Fold:
Amino acid sequence: MHVLVIQSSPNTDGLTAACASAAIKGIEAAGGTAENVRLTDLDLSSCRQCDDGWGGCRSEHVCDGIDDAFQSLHEAAIAAEALVMVTPVYWGDLSESHKCFTDRLRRCEASLGAGSRLAGKPVLLMAAAGGGGGGMVSCLTNMERWAQHVRMQPADLIGIKRITREHKLDAIRAAGETMVRQNS
Ligand SMILES: Cc1cc2nc3c(=O)[nH]c(=O)nc-3n(C[C@H](O)[C@H](O)[C@H](O)COP(=O)(O)O)c2cc1C
Structure:
């Protein structure tokens, strides 16, 4: 199983990166392959709400409003058999780069309804929070709603903060491994 792992913190050695690494370990332990993408390294703009707001993505199912890193990422997401998404919790929500990507991906795929090219694929959703962890649950709720819109199947939803780091990283590794084993 080929898994696209999407992470969105600028910190290369932070909690988000540790979550992605743990998931990749699990994926590879189950015989899967992982492609690791760091959204903050990419040129990725927010949706421009083209035309009357619906834009060409509603009928064409591609983003032709902005030519940037989105198009190749969109193709990679369609080609992958599963996704892993891990965002730092910012303001109780996904990070800005993660929102840019998921907003545009949702517009292209949710408009296909049950024919979404992501439909039925598993997705492991993770929110990496700070010390208190406030807003972790609302971030995960928003990730879950996104998965519903594009008709993906959450393999798990995992919140992690600094003081839960050790045992949650173990859980994330196990979740990555289980997701590949159950879907291969
Ligand atoms: C702009 C901004 C907003 C944040 N908002 C929250 C928040 O709402 N709740 C929380 O628990 N942590 C919040 N944090 C802390 C980050 O979620 C936390 O430091 C996280 O571990 C960052 O991941 P990283 O280590 O991979 O960069 C915020 C951090 C930033 C920079």
Summary: The helical segments are 15-29, 57-60, 70-79, 96-110, 136-150, 165-183. The chain has one domain: 2-43+76-95+115-183. The domain at 2-43+76-95+115-183 is CATH 3.40.50.360 (Rossmann fold).
